[in-house]
């Protein structure tokens, strides 16, 4: 057996897999609570979370879900293609605005650094 035994006879690779699994569970659980993929929270923080804090963190997500359910239930089906195309155009124009701002900022930063 070439696998190194460490704590309580558990192989090191199994401990690493368990650690990674808890990191993944903690990250996935904190994602809807914070709304931020780079939240830097752990499974231990999740265990210390009080129920009132969890409810307060999930309130905005619950509001979005209620609005989405209302739109799904009451939005006229013949207007859906028009709304989808308007949403797509809005996302495209917004993305273009953000991308052009980012490029302009990087160009200005590069010219200021090169001087």
Mean pLDDT: 85
Number of separate helices? 4
**Percent of residues in beta strands:** under 5%
Kindly name the structural category.
mainly alpha
- The portion of residues assigned to helices is over 70%
- The overall strand count is 0
Largest sheet composition: none
The SSE order reads HHHH
Distance between the termini: 62 Å
Gyration radius, in Å: 23 Å
Low-confidence stretches: none
Backbone shape: flat
Keywords: Membrane, Transmembrane, Transmembrane helix
Transmembrane segments: 16-33, 54-75, 81-105
What does this structure look like?
This protein is mainly α. It is 76% helix and 0% strand. It is built from four helices and no strands. The radius of gyration is 23 Å and the shape is flat. The protein starts with 11 loop residues before the first helix and ends with a helix.
């Amino acid at each position: 057996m070439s696998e190194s035994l460490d704590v309580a006879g558990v192989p090191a690779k199994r401990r690493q897999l368990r650690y990674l699994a808890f990191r993944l569970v903690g990250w996935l659980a904190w994602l809807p609570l914070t709304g931020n993929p780079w939240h830097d929270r752990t499974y231990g923080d999740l265990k210390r979370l009080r129920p009132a804090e969890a409810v307060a963190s999930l309130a905005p997500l619950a509001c979005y879900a209620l609005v989405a359910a209302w739109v799904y239930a009451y939005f006229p089906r013949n207007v859906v293609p028009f709304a989808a195309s308007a949403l797509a155009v809005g996302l495209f124009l917004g993305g273009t605005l953000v991308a052009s701002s980012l490029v302009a900022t990087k160009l200005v930063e590069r010219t200021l650094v090169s001087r």
